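Reply to thread "Modeling small-molecule complexes from scratch"

Following up on the discussion above, here's a worked example others can learn from. I took a protein sequence and the SMILES for zinc ion and predicted the complex. Inputs first:
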Amino acid sequence: MHELSITQDILKSVLEECGDREVKKITLVIGDMSSILDESVKMYWELLAEGTKAERAELVFKRIEGVFICKKCGEEFPIKHSEFKCPKCGAQSFTIPQRCKSFYIESIDL
Ligand SMILES: [Zn+2]
């Protein structure tokens, strides 16, 4: 349910940005490991943005694929096909880069 507060934050930033102009498009970047669902954001957006300058804005989502970085050899590989094992050296110890967990507004079109 954390999409609700996230969507509130997005709307707040967008409205601060746009002043009294109409917002046409908002591009959001979501890391695959951030556990944010596009659909939930969209759903809350429709509820929250209603009656504001952003109510007709199109939401565009850009996904950053989730990857692991092997702690042993530094290999970077997608989580999807990894079977939780480094494809290069077989180690099972990883870190997830910050960008895969991030979420931010890339651009606002007025
Ligand atoms: Zn490795």
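What I'd highlight from this example: The chain has one domain: 3-109. Residues 28 and 53 are 18 Å apart (CA to CA). Questions welcome below.
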